[in-house]
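Re-running the complex after MR caught last week's input typo. The corrected sequence lines follow. Everything else is unchanged.
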Amino acid sequence: MNLYAIKAIYTFEMARWWRTVMQSIISPVVSTSLYFVVFGAAIGSRIESVEGVSYAAFIVPGLIMLSLLQQSLSNASFGIYFPKFAGTVYEILTAPISHVETVIAFVGAAATKSIILALIILATAALFVDLQIQHPVWMVVFMVLTALTFSLIGFIIGIWADGFEKLQLIPLLIVTPLAFLGGTFYSISMLPETWQTIALFNPVVYLVSGFRWSFYGVADVDIAISLGMTLFFMAAALAIITWIFKTGYKLRS
Amino acid sequence: MNMHATTASPAVAITGLDKTYDTGFSALKNINLEIRPGEIFALLGPNGAGKTTLIGTICGMVRPTAGQILVGGYDVITQFRKTRAMIGLVPQELTGDRFETVWATVSFTRGLFGKPRNDAIIEKILRDLSLWDKRNDKLITLSGGMKRRVLIAKALSHEPSILFLDEPTAGVDVELRRDMWNVVRELREQGVTIILTTHYIEEAEEMADRIGVISRGEIILVEDKIELMSKLGKKDLAIQLQEPLKALPPSLEALGLKLSDGGEELRFSYDSQSDRTGIATLIAAISEEGYRIKDVSTHQSSLEDIFIGLLRERT
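Corrected-run output:
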């Protein structure tokens, strides 16, 4: 194991983030606060509670999950895309570092950043609503698994993308809609029956549901299924990354 | 030639290497090549000949289609950790993390190549490359020449035993070129094997121990530089006359002399390795005709002449 290389990439990525830390933190904190004002206060005041939880509190896990997904994707995709764009990827390709180590370093850094941000958003939310976390260990488990899974997906997007437009394409066109339709702001039980069935094909439903359960003990789908699906997505992302490295797809000619 | 050359295993040994891209373009064809430890090997070839692809296959950026590459006796595919740790690469393109400082980016490469932090080594490299004063500057603020130095510093940061320089002096000024060659000479004294690609033949001529010529994906020649130059090199003799000639007398024309420079100079091309160069006969014939010689000079054919001749033979 080339631990020095993992450390070098990890600290390099974190340092890059740290240089723009204020923008990195302020922007999601401001947008989360706006969500609270709009959905929590304005709309939430007209909705008494969802499954026994006040609406403002109900949306907290969804909002954290939304940021976690978006930040993991953008951190990881940018992390690997930028060396490709700047031409410095030659160093990584010629270094004595295995595929696994490369992924640990890049994905580890991306997941760390998004988890830090998720915790900041959690703290921000605590200023607006009375939070309760029934299963803190499971909350951390879901947070870490989601951050890692979506950082892995971000890593794939970063390798696939050959321009900044493509880098934004999947997060904007697929992931954000899935996140919004995945029960971030509502329980899928509030949907008509047909849409409830369709929603079950949305992977984000399982992430949000499991994460919300760790807060309030209420879930749209069984917690075991949520966990199983999260692990399944992670395994699928790992399989794609393994294929990328085996074939050298968009990395080695 | 280097003393290790005959005893130690090759620094790089390539056998039957092919590279065909997905497009069907065959970039390397049955390359067989050995680089000796401690030598400076220059790989010459025109643009698109396969120089960078060849380096890419050795360093890990390009996947070979067939064949085997050993670095220090280890396979570059199955034992990549060992081989890549031995290699430093200075790429052709001026790349870099523009918002990083010189110190940070060079230190990063050392870590990436599996070496623990060592500030003394980084400091020495930066000083040797006249980068010490710039250590806290961001790459974006540096000139092209300075960026090139940073790339060299990065390649040396993990103390490689084999250094690849891909077109190292393309677009750099005279001062940097001189600094770079000083560093290369020092590295060679430390036993580092240096492989450089260039299409500037004077670089190869000045620095290399051996020269390989690659054209259209094939190695068409590998030779000791001195042997190559003496084997293939012609010498030109230039005889300047006191008074210009209007025409060359038939007796001198028959000896192969040519008139140039407005009739003030006679030129003669000969094989310097030959037992009989014909120079003595020539001088005697000029005297017999009554011409007075002002000056005589000879010029050894450059590698460039040899190189162009070789490529012309192939086409």
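None of the earlier attempt is carried over here. Chain A has one domain: 3-247. The first helix of chain A runs from residue 3 to 19.
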